[in-house]
Write a structure and sequence with these properties.
heterodimer, A: alpha/beta, Rossmann fold, 4-stranded parallel sheet, 4-stranded mixed sheet, 13 helices, 10 strands, B: alpha/beta, 16 helices
Chain lengths: 305, 382
């Protein structure tokens, strides 16, 4: 499970993790559940259907497959399994009834989504699991506790019946050692605060928190001091670059802003270290997350494991 | 280099000063500084333009809330103290949306106390008023409608909920009011009574089956609660829809200005573009795009490649460690700026006439009134 505040890049991190875990001939499934088509956008493919598809090859002969779980489709699939709805099911969808049923009971929606993840995780081909790992691009930190805590949500709704059984099965899996909830953050105040809050919530609910993943990280401030204008002027001249007053002043200003930013980052990093969880830093990719960038992130994530 | 921007510049001061503009709605994806932008604009409207302003925030960061004097969810606007309004005569009030209490108020307004108590006690109401997908969006609209109806503000600045998609802000109220209107609920609870037209009989048959299936899957208890809830709400159905429609019309009026807020990241820009398209479809007035967290090198002439090459030369030479570091940092910044311009251009190409302003990334986070003032100045390019 990969969660994080909106804007921290959790989809990229989830994709990189799926890629990293598939390296060397393994197979992983990358799942999204929020209907955002974030995976398709990241990989520049057509929108993903509710169907497991080959997404990309991983280095060393591995494969990443992708799936966009749709709560409506999952409910229909589920009802069909028990009640053979057939054409009536399709009519219901047209009528908006499915959307309605999943909307009146958000817990129902979530148990369908996590139920699908459970099914993929435990599926086997003969003796072997179909997937070596399933990576979920999970809802953001603000909603993750409620999303994973399916039994509490559905207990309000269903005292007996298949949904109750289903949610109990999901709950056991999500609290078992084969699950890890990773929290992605930036070294910015709000995301770090939400990370701290989410980890407290997840821990209290009994979900195994994996690592804290700092995205877009720059190395800590070097112990040195701020560069002076005179020093910079000499350096620029030595490098054959313009060393006029405006250039020097501009670069000094940039350096000062960086210094402020980095000092703040260092103090936020210290807050994260205090959580006592494994911390992985992914480098800032100034060019954005392209395929090469994803592989850089994948390598960093696997190295950390 | 802002001069390269193809889009016309956004003049925020013109909007904030215009007495004809009574509502500013800030919308966009999560994590782009929407709340901070809303607060900064409201502060500027009060301090600079002398307007009696209220800012409705949804889920502000703790320290930002504190800077506005907000310590808890509180459904009443509180006057923000310690701001500079002596010259302008404006006022700034702020409030944080309490979703549950807003919902309770709506119920109380539409029904007698005995019935209201019955509704409040219903477990389904309790679940829905705090977790229903869309309740927050609906209540934000409701609160906006209330503030507007009171007529005591020159300007209402609204921050929108951090939804899965920014579009939820427009869609959720309609969805929820449709739901509360009870048509679907009645169908679900009393499938037998809805027969009649042969055209629908297939659907109705399907519905009966569906209803049974739902009963089996989620249990009869929910349907019982739901049934009680619907019966109790029966008298209020018309009211919900009417209110949602009223607010919707206010959002279409000339007195409203929508500001899209984005950061130069692909997701945020895509959301902003979707939203701009939707606003156009719904004939809602889009005033412009505020592009936050833009990185601009102070020395734009020095390219990333030249800077990096020079840094490598100096590193080999030795003795200029400080300069090497500055040049490497500059190269990263320059690369980032090029990439951000490319990302932002996707919006500008799709909506070339939408006025845009870029706001440079602040080195540190904002959590006091001075910080908000600085942001306000940056947004208005003063």
């Amino acid at each position: 499970m990969v969660t994080g505040k909106g804007g921290t890049g959790k989809t990229s991190v989830a994709a990189a993790l799926a890629l990293g875990l598939a390296a060397g001939g393994r197979r992983t499934l990358l799942v999204e559940v929020e209907g955002r088509q974030g995976i398709a956008q990241l990989f520049g493919t057509d929108p993903l259907p509710y169907e497991e598809r080959h997404l990309t090859d991983a280095p060393g002969g591995g494969e990443v497959r992708a799936l966009a779980v749709d709560a409506e489709e999952a409910l229909l699939e589920y009802l069909d399994m028990f009640y053979k709805l057939g054409a009536a099911g399709r009519a219901l969808r047209k009528f908006g009834a499915i959307d309605f049923a999943t909307t009146i009971a958000p817990g129902l929606r979530d148990v369908l989504l996590t139920g699908k993840v459970k099914e993929a995780t435990t599926r086997t081909n003969g003796q072997r699991r179909t997937y070596d790992a399933v990576v979920l691009d999970a809802p953001p930190t603000g909603r993750i506790g409620r999303f994973l805590n399916v039994t509490a949500e559905t207990a309000r709704l269903a005292k007996v019946g298949p949904i109750k059984t289903q949610s109990e099965g999901v709950s056991v899996l999500l609290r078992s050692p084969i699950t890890a909830v990773h929290v992605v953050t930036l070294l910015e105040e709000m995301p770090v605060q939400e990370t701290v809050d989410a980890i407290a919530e997840l821990t209290q609910l009994g979900f195994p928190v994996g690592r804290v993943i700092v995205n877009g990280a720059r190395p800590p401030v070097p112990a040195g001091r701020a560069v002076t204008a005179a020093e910079l002027k000499r350096g620029l001249s030595a490098a054959g670059l313009p060393a006029d007053g405006r250039t020097v002043a501009g670069l000094v200003e940039e350096a000062r802003d960086q210094q402020v930013r980095r000092e703040l980052e260092d103090s936020l990093r210290a807050d994260l270290v205090e959580l006592g969880l494994p911390l992985t830093e992914l480098p800032l990719l100034p060019e954005g997350v392209d395929r090469a960038g994803l592989e850089t992130l994948a390598a960093a994530l696997v190295r950390a494991d | 280099m802002p001069s390269e921007d193809a889009a016309p510049p956004l003049d925020v001061d013109q909007i904030l000063a215009d007495p004809g503009v009574r509502i500013v709605v800030c919308c966009g994806a999560g994590g782009v500084g929407k709340t901070t932008t809303a607060a900064a604009l409201a502060l500027r409207a009060a301090e600079r333009h002398g307007r009696r302003t209220v800012v409705l925030t949804i889920d502000p960061a703790r320290r930002l809330a504190q800077s506005l004097g907000l310590t808890e969810l509180d459904n009443t606007p509180r006057r923000v103290k310690g701001i500079d309004v002596e010259a302008s005569g404006g006022e700034l009030h702020a409030m944080m949306l309490d979703m549950k209490r807003t919902f309770d108020d709506v119920v109380l307004q539409h029904t007698d106390p005995a019935k209201a108590a019955e509704i409040f006690a219903n477990p389904f109401y309790q679940a829905m008023s705090s977790t229903f997908a869309g309740t927050q969006e609906y209540m934000a609209m409701e609160k906006l409608g209330q503030l507007h109806a009171r007529g005591e503000w020159d300007l209402i600045v609204v921050d929108t909920p951090p939804s899965r998609s920014a579009l939820d802000f427009l869609d959720a109220p309609a969805r929820l009011s449709r739901f509360l209107d009870g048509r679907m609920l009645r169908l679900l609870l009393a499938p037998a009574r809805t027969g009649g037209r042969s055209m629908f009989s297939f659907v109705t048959a399907g519905f009966g089956m569906f209803s049974k299936a739902v009963q089996k899957v989620i249990g009869a208890q929910l349907l019982t609660d739901l049934s009680g809830f619907v019966a109790a709400l029966d008298s209020m159905f018309g009211g919900f829809r009417q209110r949602a429609e009223q607010t919707y019309r206010i959002l279409q009026a000339r007195e409203t200005a929508f500001l899209l807020v984005a950061a130069p990241e692909p997701d945020a820009v895509r959301e902003a573009a979707y939203f701009a398209g939707r606003l156009r479809e719904e004939r809602m007035p889009l005033a412009g795009l505020v592009l936050n967290r833009v990185h601009e090198p102070a020395v734009p002439r020095l390219t990333a490649a030249d800077s990096l090459a020079a840094a490598e030369r100096l590193a080999v030479e030795g003795g200029h460690e400080g300069t090497v570091e500055v040049l490497r940092a500059h190269a990263t910044l320059a690369q980032q700026a090029v990439r951000e311009r490319r990302v932002a251009a996707q919006f500008t190409e799709a909506f070339p006439t939408v006025p845009t302003v870029s706001v440079t990334a602040q080195p540190a986070d904002v959590h006091d009134v001075d910080g908000l003032r600085t942001i306000g100045e940056a947004i208005s390019r003063r």
